[in-house]
Amino acid sequence: MPKSSPKTLSEPDVSRLIEMAWEDRTPFDAIEKSFGLSESQVIELMRYELKRSSFEMWRKRVTGRNTKHAALRSKLVARAYCPTQYKNN
User: Fold this and answer.
1) What's the CA gap between 25 and 27, in Å, rounded?
2) CA 56 to CA 62: how far, in whole Å?
3) What are the residue ranges spanned by the domains of the chain?
4) Is the pLDDT of residue 10 over 70?
């Protein structure tokens, strides 16, 4: 799968990526697997897409958060998302 860049993502993909970035249980590794963007590229996208205050709040929230980095996560957490995340309408 070729690496994506924020310029090649569709609007729904950007929206989903932002949603995943805000989720506590979704590690950057899962975002990279889904969209091909590294952690630094996700940070760059979030900086561009969010208002400054929202970006700063997000950065403060995810900095050092164990659940956002698969290597730091508890081995008891084997999934990247909440079971109720993908609801059928």
Assistant:
1) 6
2) 10
3) 11-65
4) yes
d(CA 56, CA 72): 22
Tokens coding 12: 């729904």
Residues written for the chain = 89
The alpha carbons of the chain give a radius of gyration, in whole angstroms, of 13
Token representation of residue 9:
């993502």
Interatomic CA distance for residues 53 and 84, integer angstroms: 29
pLDDT digits (tens, 9 = 90+) for 44-81: 999 999 999 999 999 998 887 776 665 555 555 555 55
What is the mean pLDDT of the segment spanning 6-13?
A: 82
Amino acid at 25: R
Instruction: Tell me the pTM.
Output: 0.69
Rounded to whole angstroms, how far apart are CA atoms 33 and 89? 26
Q: How far apart are CA 42 and CA 19, in angstroms?
A: 11
